[in-house]
Amino acid sequence: MCDLLRINTDRGVMIHDQESRFSIKGKPIYHFVGTSTFSEYTVVRAGCVASLNPEAPLDKVCVLNCGICTGLGATINVAKPKPGSSVGLASAEGARISGASRIIGVDLVSSRFELAKKFGVNEFVNPKDHNKPVQEVIAEMTNGGVDRSVECTGSIQAMISAFECVHDGWGVAVLVGVPSKDDAFKTHPTNFLNERTLKGTFYGNYKPRTDLPNVVEKYMRGELELEKFITHTVPFSEINKAFDLMLKGESIRCIIRMDE
User: Fold this and answer.
1) How many Å apart are CA 250 and CA 256, to the nearest integer?
2) How far, in Å, are 57, 146, 150, 184 from residue 215 at the CA level?
3) Long-range CB contacts for residues 39-42, cutoff 8 Å, separation at least 24
4) b/e sequence 231-250, b meaning 16+ C-beta within 10 Å
5) Residue 219 and residue 260: Cα distance in Å, rounded?
6) For residue 4, is pLDDT > 70?
7) Residue 23: which residues within 8 A CB-CB, separation 6 or more?
8) Beta-bridge partner residues of 206
9) Residue 22 Cα distances to 14, 71, 243, angstroms
10) How far, in Å, CA of 195 to CA of 172, rounded?
């Protein structure tokens, strides 16, 4: 069943009948991982609908999709850093909300550090600036490793680094990114024997129907800052511009307006 689900979502069709649910001018529009977004109206099962606070601005809470909820939940619900702990490798907003005192961002583009500061990142490491593996760099910075790490890129090497940079005895690494189907996670068994913990998560362990309304309320109470995630807004006719911004690393979240 798992293999069939992966194949059908990769092909952009539904698992039940291998068909898409959307079309335009008689041609099918394929789904993204079993769902679709670029439509103004659709019909779904009642159990798949989340009821949100009617006062919540849709042009802000619409970004509470895979990316933000997954990263936020990976930290808050899975890694669960304690106040004052150190967190490395992304999901900084969740770490900030959890009260982590030392949040280390890792990225191949050093110019992103200034932007990352808005999310609570107070230290930054670019692996290209060092002649040793980034996990060794972080271990030296933190006297043995971070308490929690979260990997969000899908890079298999970043996943290995995330696990190997946590502290022996209590460190927890959480994998979020989706790797290539041919990738293999390789690390020395001693890393497990030394009581490091490796976890994975899908959508940050949030259940959309019951948990998404609560995440929206976090935003409404000012606990979660969504505006800083939104860097661009474009009409649907310029959706390719949004993709270009993403591929160049110049945007975080780009809002697509259907009414323009």
Assistant:
1) 16
2) 13, 27, 20, 34
3) 40/258
4) ebebeeebeeebeebeeeee
5) 26
6) no
7) 29
8) none
9) 11, 29, 21
10) 9
Helix (H/G/I), strand (E/B), else coil: 151 = strand
Q: Assess contact for 105 and 124: CB atoms under 8 A.
A: yes
Q: Please give the Cα distance from 33 to 71 (Å, whole number).
A: 18
Helix (H, G, I), strand (E, B) or coil at 184: coil
**What is the rounded distance in angstroms from the CA atom of residue 127 to the CA atom of residue 135?**
9
List pLDDT tens digits, range 145-166.
Answer: 999 999 988 899 999 999 999 9
Q: Which of 166, 129, 161 is nearest to 145 (CA)?
A: 166
Query: What is the token pair recorded at 93?
Result: 């907003």
8 and 25 Cβ atoms separated by less than 8 Å: no
pLDDT at 8 over 50: no
pTM value? 0.81
* Single-letter residue type at 146: V
- Tokens representing 30 are 């394929």
Q: In angstroms, rounded to a whole number, what is the distance separating the alpha carbons of residues 62 and 59? A: 6
Question: Rounded to an integer, what is the distance from CA 134 to the centroid of its chain?
Answer: 20
Q: What percentage of the chain has pLDDT greater than the value 90?
A: 44
